[in-house]
Design goal:
Layout lengths: L1 E5 L12 H10 L6 E5 L2 H11 L5 E4 L17 H7 L3 E4 L2 H4 L5 H13 L3 E6 L3 H5 L3 H12 L9 E5 L13 H14 L6 E5 L7 H4 L7 E4 L6 H12 L1
Parallel strand pairs: 1-2, 1-8, 2-3, 3-4, 4-5, 5-6, 6-7, 7-8
Helix pairs in contact: 5-7, 7-8
The structure holds 2-phosphoglycolic acid.
């Protein structure tokens, strides 16, 4: 199972201290074989990578620029720079960035260039509340997968995170049957037996007891609750209890 922490625009150098608990927890629970990935803001990628260097916890970026090479793009960071800072993953297609104008084609270019640089992709897809109400969930997901992963051959480098937009930060989660069906739909669409599909959206240490019952899930992308180390550890412990 994957447990991916998306810190969004939270965290500073002081916050890194809280990772000591995580490092110890991961060491003690090696036998459980879960994978933990932290995606902090750009400013913390280097220092976090250094701190986690001897642990099994990996680091990822939360987005990147689509350009492969260096260039005059004020405020941006490309996949090469993420890799150089110690990241092994990058979140792409997050709805918070789609809402800021990133479209499927742009995301596809980011996916391609990030894979070329050797990064693994946490590829986010999900429908809005309006799309859900209009019964457009599957057509939205199909389009995001079709264009976003167009001509991507190395599907092994990609972890899909299904994150319904109406679920992110709202405390509302889909019911287990709907979630099971959507995850199966995604797995069928990408036609890759070993593809990993995670769920994200308001995952916390209370609803994990329900979410963990979903048989076809390969893990969770956790926002708000991941900023509190105790909560994150509690989520992992409960998943295995
Ligand atoms: P949330 O965020 O857990 O705070 O809902 C999840 C995400 O946006 O990845």
């Amino acid at each position: 199972m994957y447990f991916i922490a998306n810190w969004k625009m939270f965290g500073d150098s002081k916050t890194l201290k809280s990772l000591n608990n995580v490092i110890n927890f991961v060491k003690k629970n090696k036998n459980k074989r879960f994978k933990m990935i932290y995606c902090p803001p750009f400013t913390l990628i280097s220092s976090m990578s250094a701190k986690l260097a001897k642990s099994a916890v990996q680091v990822g970026g939360q987005n990147c620029h689509h350009a492969k090479n260096y260039g005059a793009y004020t405020g941006s960071v490309n996949p090469k720079m993420l890799k150089d800072a110690g990241a092994e993953y990058v979140i792409l297609g997050h709805s918070e960035n789609r809402q800021n104008g990133e479209d499927d084609k742009l995301i596809n270019l980011k996916v391609k260039n990030s894979i070329d640089e050797g990064l693994n992709i946490i590829f986010c897809i999900g429908e809005t509340l309006k799309e859900k109400k209009n019964k457009k969930t599957f057509s939205t997901l199909s389009k995001q997968l079709r264009i976003g992963l167009n001509k991507i051959k190395n599907i092994k480098k990609i972890i899909i995170a299904y994150e319904p937009v109406w679920s992110i930060g709202t405390g509302i989660i889909p019911n287990n049957d709907d979630l099971f069906n959507t995850i199966s739909f995604i797995k069928k669409k990408i036609k890759h037996q070993s593809a990993k599909v995670l769920y994200g959206g308001s995952v916390n240490n209370k609803n994990i007891n329900e979410l963990k019952k979903i048989k076809n899930l390969d893990g969770f992308l956790i926002g708000g609750a991941s900023q509190d180390t105790k909560k994150l550890i509690d989520i992992i412990q409960k998943t295995y209890n």
